[in-house]
Write a structure and sequence with these properties.
- This protein is an alpha/beta fold.
- 32% of the residues lie in helices and 23% in strands.
- The protein contains 16 helices and 21 strands.
- An eight-stranded mixed β-sheet has the order 1-2-4-3-5-9-6-7.
- It is globular.
């Protein structure tokens, strides 16, 4: 008996080889004051799979520039733990992503907690039976490991956190369309493989001091497929309703003042461009949700709100996901028929204003003897109801007509453009034989403007001009990018030259708008005199001299007038090297 008791005592003192792994986080154990380093993510990913081998698969989907693994957890009680299985079973996939800005790390800790509770059955319903949850705890892994206590000076907690951008200094939430960062290329490959119905991007906002604690923005709501906008609006409104029931004060617009540091300027809702997650996924006929908890709420509060949001979205997808997935697939089918239809390349917020009640704090704006400007001082002990303007009516701005057939990319540009199209899962065809001279629409720029300073590693290019019919030679190796495909909106966003997030805008074709050949002045003088023998040229020259003072004062501009009319002029200068076509190849 004594021997048995001694044996049990010794056994209890030894670690059990098959003991259940501890799935709590550093954050949870610290009372949500701290957050763990990335080695915790590596361990938890493996431990969740170990604890729930039939419901969790931990896998690597990429490597960062500094060599760290990018990890995701596929979680479902449906038996579908691969992309192929999810597609075969027609199960909606929900992708929840934390740490795109790694100082804004609420999503990682909230996500692991929600995941554990869902697997333990502590959450109401059977959400994991009806969907696959694809959880990426940290997107910006290298930035996460640039760890420190001072990385977010206008944020309360955790005690240390990661850095906003990647090791290559890319802001990943400006990279969805151009996809420069290896991390983004890995994420797009993951998205192409799994085709998530909804992509939830978890952030912490910057900004002023006030009481509302989270904003929930979803697309398609303002743009994209009209029928799918109804589902997007329902997703947004249902999640906002859930959060209100749990004591939050959520807003449907980004909670940042129209004029920085001026509370009475109110708020302006906007439509995000394709560089952002919410401006990207609706172009694929899928839902993108931007979640922004408020930085001046403490870390336990923010993690709880993020947790509530994740749980709400899971419940919404469990309840409506099958119908919403069918709606998304129907939107895919409708997108294949967009040829010849109007497509908004951009949106704007109208001047329509309404006054809203907004819970802020008493504040005063005083002259600063430090900055010489105005300093806003908030008193968080004195809540105050503000009445402020809100502009949230968003309408199409710059609209183009989709080509009937698609786009032709000449062989010289095919390699670079084709690589970008592949990253986004866009369908295209390489023309094995030369079609020869074709009547196409060609865009010629009449004005170009480069930003003086780089943005995300690029000098941005804006062009003015027009599409006109021309006969252009198209050789073998050119690409045909059809409009008749589910990602037609994404195709036009990438290839229409006047789009703010087009490949042209990000500088892929800048060389086409650089003049490379010149005529010496003494030659141009001779050419000018020869051309002036033509009465029409002489009249046009005189008219320009009489009506354009800047032209009249510039000897270079005057000689250029004649150089442009000479047979040596480069007819490809300012020609956008992508054509529109009505044909289908």
């Amino acid at each position: 008996m004594i021997r048995t008791a001694l044996s049990l005592a010794l056994l209890a003192a030894l670690p059990l080889a098959h003991a259940a792994p501890d799935l709590t986080t550093v954050s949870e154990r610290s009372g949500f004051q701290a957050t763990g380093r990335y080695d915790e993510v590596v361990k938890l990913c493996a431990d969740f799979q170990k604890a729930y081998p039939k419901a969790v698969r931990c896998f690597e989907f990429g490597r960062t520039p500094e060599g760290r693994p990018m990890l995701a957890l596929a979680v479902s009680k449906s038996g579908a733990l691969t992309a192929g299985a999810a597609k075969k079973k027609n199960i909606p996939v929900l992708l929840v992503q934390g740490g795109i800005h790694a100082g804004e790390i609420d999503g990682k800790d909230a996500g692991f907690l929600a995941l554990r509770h869902a697997l333990d059955g502590k959450l109401a319903g059977a959400a994991l039976d009806r969907q696959v949850l694809l959880f990426v705890p940290v997107f910006n892994v290298d930035g996460h490991e640039r760890f420190g206590p001072n990385n977010r000076p206008n944020q309360r907690g955790p005690v240390e956190m990661g850095w906003r951008v990647t090791a290559q200094n890319y802001n990943l939430n400006r990279d969805y369309l151009k996809a420069d960062a290896p991390e983004m290329q890995a994420m797009l490959a993951l998205v192409n493989q799994w085709d998530p119905l909804a992509y939830i991007d978890l952030h912490v906002t910057d900004g002023a001091k006030f009481e509302p604690d989270v904003s929930i923005q979803v697309e398609p709501v303002h743009g994209g497929d009209a029928a799918l906008r109804e589902a997007g609006t329902a997703l947004r409104d249902n999640v906002i309703a859930d959060l209100r029931q749990q004591g939050s004060d959520p807003k449907h617009f980004y909670i940042s003042f129209a004029r920085t540091d001026e509370p009475q300027s109110g708020f302006v809702d906007e439509m995000s461009g394709a560089r952002f997650s919410t401006g990207y996924f609706y172009l694929r006929n899928r839902f993108g949700m931007l979640v922004e908890t408020h930085s001046w709420k403490d870390y336990p509060t923010r993690v709880k709100i993020t947790y509530n949001t994740i749980v709400s979205v899971m419940n919404q997808v469990a309840k409506h996901g099958t119908a919403w997935r069918q709606a998304a697939l129907a939107a895919d089918a409708r997108a294949t028929a967009l040829g010849g239809q109007d497509f908004p390349l951009s949106y704007r917020t109208t001047d329509k204003v309404r006054t809203i009640d907004f819970r802020g704090y008493e504040f005063k704006r005083v002259p600063s003897d430090v900055s010489g400007g105005i300093w806003t001082q908030y008193d968080e002990t004195k809540p105050q109801l503000w009445k402020v303007p809100l502009r949230d009516e968003i309408v199409p701005d710059f609209t183009i007509k989709a080509p009937a057939g698609g786009y032709l990319v000449p062989a010289a540009q095919a390699g670079a453009v084709g690589a970008k199209l592949k990253q986004h899962g866009v369908a295209f065809k390489v023309l094995a034989a030369a079609p020869g001279k074709l009547e196409v629409e060609a865009f010629r720029a009449t004005k170009t403007r480069l930003t003086p300073q780089s943005f995300e590693g690029h000098q941005m290019l804006a062009v003015e001009g027009a599409w006109n019919t021309e006969a252009r030679e198209v050789g073998a190796g050119a690409l045909f990018v059809p409009i008749a495909q589910p990602k037609a909106r994404l195709v036009m966003t990438m290839l229409e030259p006047q789009g703010a997030d087009s490949l042209l805008a990000w500088g892929m074709f800048t060389a086409a708008f650089e003049r490379k050949e010149y005529m010496e002045e003494y030659v141009a003088e001779e050419v000018a005199r020869e051309q002036l023998k033509d009465p029409a040229v002489a009249a046009a020259f005189k008219e320009r001299l009489d009506n354009d003072p800047d032209f009249a004062k510039s000897s270079r501009a005057r000689l250029d007038f004649f150089a442009r009319r000479h047979a040596s002029w480069d007819e490809r200068f300012n020609l956008y090297p992508v054509y529109r076509t009505d044909r289908k190849f």
